[in-house]
What we know:
Blueprint: H1 24-27, E1 38-42, E2 49-51, E3 58-62, H2 70-78, H3 105-108, H4 147-159, E4 173-175, E5 179-180, E6 186-191, E7 198-203, E8 206-209, E9 216-221, E10 227-236, E11 240-249, E12 258-260, E13 264-265, E14 270-276, H5 281-284, E15 288-292, E16 297-299, E17 310-312, E18 319-324, E19 332-340, E20 343-354, E21 373-374, E22 380-384, E23 393-399, E24 404-410, E25 414-418, E26 425-432, E27 437-444
Parallel strand pairs: 1-3, 5-11, 13-20, 16-17
Antiparallel strand pairs: 2-3, 4-6, 6-9, 7-10, 8-9, 10-11, 12-14, 14-18, 15-19, 19-20, 21-22, 22-25, 23-24, 23-26, 26-27
Zinc ion (ZN) binds near residues 77 and 83.
Amino acid sequence: MFFNQLGFDYIDNSTYYSLQELEFDPLVQINNQADAINVYIVDIAPYKGRANGIGSQALVVKASNALGSTLPHEVGHCLNLLHTFQGTAANTSGCAEFIGEIYPNCKDCGDEVCDTPADDGNQNDNGYQPDLTNNMSYYDNRDHFTIGQELRMRDALAALSILQNVVGNSCGIVEGDTVTCSNLNTVLTLTNSTPPYYWEVINGSMEIIGSNTGNSVTIAALNSSISEQGAIEVSYGNGGLEHFNIWIGKPLALETGSIVGPDVVDTASIVAYHYESGEEEEDIGATTYEWWLPYPYNVVSPIDYYGDNWQVSVNLGIGISHVFTGYGENDGYIQVMAKNKCGLGGAKIMAVAHGNCTGPGCGGSAIVPPNPIPNSSNTSFSLDFTTYPVGTYYIYIYDINYNTVYSGATSNIEKTVETSSIPSGTYYLHIHDGNDIYTQQLIITH
Ligand SMILES: [Zn+2]
């Protein structure tokens, strides 16, 4: 949220120079602009500031307080914020907020914002631990709103009728890649805006290459060893300002999360891995992730289910499913790294070994999965489980990108799988019997 200054004017008389209590209402009618929050600055008043109600578009502030925390406090009232001590301090309307974030009391009582602690107006007494620097308190040293207050202000801008004319519709929009590298420039463009333009690096080790006064700008990291969050701002038109976060360089190393998946695998089996409870992507500069398997491995489609190597068709994303462990019994490491267009961050690593698997599905399986027999019109195929043990068999068909195109279950009968709605092509048929997964290529033709 930001504010455009739409202009200012003067009230050319001395009536309101020293504002009296009853003069507030007539003052905020004078020259009131319906499409703005009108700030009336007077020299003398019975208060530091006063808003024209909770949810309003006018306020009065005393000149000596206009550059301090009184102005954001009153603007907060205009945008529907209550005092942090509302309902809780003596002689205030509403209901008292309990100490601690107790839903729905924190939503319905006090200031109706849950991330501002209960405040009885007396600092830390009787167990209260109010936010002593909150803009909507009456304490000194006020300097911030909370996220909850910001969301309530946004809701007010979206919903309160008196604020609908106040909301601007002419904000510029910065478009471009959110990552920049030292060897790969990034171009940002500002649309829905008017000149003059002025682009500026606000933080981070990056530079503007060429002009910074056009409606687009080229930026690059200062060198290839930087991995950090940066920001750029562009001012435009009559007071417009846009802030754009941009990641500089490769992602940071993965540290806080862990790889979830088997560290002992069966030979020639299908396994899955994913990275869990890790960093937020925007905090480390990741746009995706890259996985490496025990060497030698292949990223290949289709998977060769008779091959020795570890194989997977797609090794990007927060997880990889349908990893084939191969017949070669290659022990090694599963590794995952955050990735962006500048490269890879440091890896999270998990050692993986092949177990002493001897049962079905470990390669050279004792049980041969049923062969799919297409019907004469190629609209279905049958799988004959009648010679198999009693149990439930799960059937999946995946396309070459591992999207599921069919799933079903059957007992040990002859099962018919309809394929008329599946386009002709190459697929993978997986049959699970609860312990093992049998896989084979499946050609569907119509
Ligand atoms: Zn107030």
